[in-house]
Amino acid sequence: MTKKIPVTVLSGYLGSGKTTMMNHVLQNEQNLRVAVIVNDMSEINIDAELIANGSGISRTEEKFVELSNGCICCTLREDLLQEVERLARLGNIDYILIESTGISEPIPVAQTFSYLDEELDIDLTKFCRLDTMVTVVDANRFWHDFQSGESLLARKEAVGELDERNVADLLIDQIEFCDVLVLNKCDLVSEVELARLERILRALQPEAKLIWTKNGVIEPAEILNTGRFNFERVSESAGWLKELELGHENHTPETEEYGITSFTYQRRKPFHPLRFVEWCDNMPASIVRAKGIIWSAKHQEVALLLSQAGSSAKIEPVSYWVAALPEAQQQDVFLQSPEVLKDWDALYGDRLTQLVIIGIDLDKKAIIQELDACLLSDKELNEPWENLKDPFNWEWS
Ligand SMILES: Nc1nc2c(ncn2[C@@H]2O[C@H](COP(=O)(O)OP(=O)(O)OP(=O)(O)O)[C@@H](O)[C@H]2O)c(=O)[nH]1
Asked: What 3-state class would DSSP assign to 369?
C-alpha cells in the first residue's frame, strides 16, 4: 500500500491573500515535491498565472492544475476528484496544495476528500489524507465585509443567479470550518484592532490555530504536514457549538476583554412564530453570531435552525422533533440515541429552544427580555397553536 498524499486546502474570501501565501510557501518549501491545484471562478485563471510567475512552478508542468470557470465546492467538484486522482497516480509528488476560489465553502471540499464518490466511483481516501484546512482572513476588510449586509450576487461574485449567499454567511462558513486560521494583512491594521479581531475570531472559532501574517509570510510547516485535520473535530469546532456543549462556566475570562461575550438562551416554551421572525429581522447590532435550535409553536413537527451572521439571518426546518414521530420510531431513536431521554419533558418531549448568541458589548438582560417577549404568553399557550399565522409556509412530507 503506497503512502497517502497529504493535502492542504486554502480557503478565504476574495482578495484575502491566498495566492500570496501559496507563492510564499512554494518558494520556501524545498523538501517536498508539491503539486498545486488552483481554482478560479473566471475563465482566465489569474491566480494560476500569479502562482506560475511567483513560485518557480511552470504552468505546463503535470503537477500544476488549473480549475477555472467554476468552484471546486460545487460546479467543479467532479473535476477536482478526477484531477486529484490523476495527480496521486502520477506518483512523483509528496504533497497537494489547493487554493479554492474566494467564494468556495470548505465543508463540501473537505467531504470530497473524506468520502467515496459513488457516482464517479472515486474514493480519494485511498490516495490522499486531508492534512490541514486553512482559512485566510483579511484583517483589514473582515469587519467591513462581515457587516456589509451585501449578497455575493450584488457584488457580482456569485456562482450563478440562484446563489443567494450573503458575504457574511460565506465568511462564517469559512471561519467555522478550518483548523488553521490565518489573519493576513496585519500590516494594514493597528495592534489594538488586531487584538480585538483576534478575540472575535476566537469566539467564532475557538479550536483552530490562529496565526497573524503580513503578505502571506508563514512558516510552511504551519500549514503543511500539520496532521491537524479531523473531519469530526473540525465539524464541531465552531464557537456557537462549543458554547452549546460546554456552557458558559468553561469560558476563558479573557474572551470578555474586548467586550466579546456569548451565552445560551434556553427555554422550554415555544416562540410565537411571527414575533420571533420579527425579532430576527431586527436583531440588536451587538450580535455577531446567533445560531441554534428553535421551537416554534406553529411548527410542532420540526425543529427550526436559526443561523445569523452579520446582518444576514436564515431560519429553516432542520429535523423532526422526536416527540412528533410515531411511537415505534420514537422507540428506535431512544434505543439508538438514549441521550435524547436525558432532556425529555413529560409534556413536550425534546421540544426545546437552545440558541447561542455571540456578540460585542451584548446587553444580555435586554436580549433575554426581548426573546422572552417572543415566547407564547400564558394566554396563547392555552389557545389552539395551529391557528397561529405561519410566516414560512414550508412544505414537507
Ligand atoms: N498590504 C497587504 N497586501 C497584501 C497582503 N497579502 C496580500 N496582499 C495583496 O492583496 C491582494 C490580493 O491578494 P491575493 O493573494 O491575490 O488574494 P487571494 O485571496 O488569492 O485573492 P482571490 O484569488 O481573488 O480570492 C494582492 O494585491 C496582494 O499583493 C498583506 O498582508 N498586506
From this structure: helix
Which is the closest atom of ligand 1 to the Cα of 102? 25
Q: How far is the CA of 21 from the centre of ligand 1 (A)?
A: 8
> Which residue puts its alpha carbon closest to atom 15 of ligand 1?
17
Q: Average model confidence (pLDDT) for the chain?
A: 90
The closest residue, in CA terms, to atom 12 on ligand 1 is: 15
* Domain 241-387 classification at class level: alpha beta
> Nine-digit cell at 384?
389552539
Average pLDDT over every residue of 127-147: 94
Among 71, 61, 43, CA closest to 51: 61
Q: Which of 19, 38, 100, 213 to mutate to test the pocket of ligand 1 (most atoms within 8 A of CB)?
A: 19
Ligand 1 centre distance from Cα of residue 17 (Å): 4
Note whether 10 and 97 are within 8 A (CB): yes
Homologous superfamily of 5-237? P-loop containing nucleotide triphosphate hydrolases (3.40.50.300)
If one counts every other C-beta atom within 10 angstroms of the C-beta of residue 233, the result is: 11
Domain with CATH 3.30.1220.10 in the chain: 241-387
Closest atom, ligand 1, to C-alpha of 46? 23
Q: Of 177, 186, 170, which is closest to residue 218 (Cα–Cα)?
A: 186
Ligand 1 centroid to Cα of residue 10, in Å, is: 13
- For residues 99 and 37, the answer to whether their CB atoms sit within 8 Å is yes
Cα(134) to centroid(ligand 1), Å: 15
- Asked casually if ipTM beats, i.e. exceeds, 0.85, the reply is yes
Question: pLDDT tens digits, residue range 69-112?
Answer: 888 888 888 899 999 999 988 888 999 999 999 888 999 999 99
Which residues have CB under 6 Å of ligand 1? Answer: 12, 14-20, 47, 102, 184-185, 187-188, 214-216
Give CA–CA dist 230/133, Å, rounded. Answer: 10
CA of 200 to the centre of ligand 1 (A): 22
Q: CATH 3.40.50.300 residue ranges in the chain?
A: 5-237
CA angle 14, 18, 104 (to 5 degrees): 50
Q: How confident is the model at residue 320 (pLDDT cuts 50, 70, 90)?
A: very high
Burial of 394: CB neighbours in 10 Å, binned 0-12, 13-18, 19+: exposed
